[in-house]
Amino acid sequence: MAQQDGQNGDSAKAAAAVTFTAVNPQLLVEAPRANEAVQFYKVAFGAVETGRTTQPKRKAEQELPHIISAQLQLAGSTIIVSDLSDDSAPEKSLASGISLVLVTEDVEAAIAKAVAAGAVAEGEIVEGDGAYYGGAERVGKVKDPYGFVWVIASLAKKSTADVEA
């Protein structure tokens, strides 16, 4: 029973041992495109770069230092963007069950801005019951130039009756 509790996370000992303070998604892009990706996320989504780790030139033909990782602030979250090179990171897995969701009041404007920066709109904006993101009123999607799909959602506004209840 104690072994099962530990595996399921029910053990008080296991719960007290580790505390997480954040989840920071890391987006791995084909080397040497991390710098390009950082610029895209700044223009398309208004991300702010808060840190960068670089490696000196790895090859004589490279002009810029190789980005190991860049930290971006986006909608109150930290996202790490890194170059994926043959010798530096685990195998890349694109869109394997991960959704990157941005919440905004203006889905059309957000999609238009991302498309203007180089993303591709995926399908139509869905409203009402078809807007599958929890509590969303409208949902659209864009695929960025690095293969990641971003869900752009506006949450349903609560009516006065909902707030008073």
Automatic annotation (TrEMBL):
Matching InterPro entries: At5g48480-like_C (IPR054575), At5g48480-like_N (IPR054576), Glyas_Bleomycin-R_OHBP_Dase (IPR029068), VOC_core (IPR037523)
Gene3D superfamilies in the record, alphabetically?
2,3-Dihydroxybiphenyl 1,2-Dioxygenase, domain 1 (3.10.180.10)
Identify the residues that the record assigns to the VOC domain, covering every copy: 22-155
Source organism superkingdom: Eukaryota
Q: Name one Pfam family in it.
A: At5g48480-like_N
Q: What is this protein called?
A: VOC domain-containing protein
Please tell me the species this chain comes from.
Ricinus communis
